[in-house]
Amino acid sequence: DDRSAVNNLPRLYVGSSSPSSSTPLTNHAIVPLDANQANYLNVMRITSPKRWGSLAGNLRIFNGSDGEWLAKIIVADGGVGGGNPSAYAAGSSKKKNTRRRDPAGSATTVVVECIEQ
Description:
globular, 5 strands
């Protein structure tokens, strides 16, 4: 059953300490993740089809006010679960577990898109 598979996906809080600065979760909303959130997805191997099957690259997100949403990684610049979820979907066995940083020292960029509530 697809719903129970979705319910087994990792759940991630994407709100902030200030509700006014939190990205509202709506259909097709683009939500940037911070370094700790990106690290969590890396630890969960979120883009691994071996672990998540056809749901690789998907997760459940919530912010405490807009309900829970199914989201997919649309940009993973660096080490999240090996990087590019589409490469895993195509059956690539190459993994790249490096964490690139920009000159200012900020973490790699990970962005998710809300796809379904």
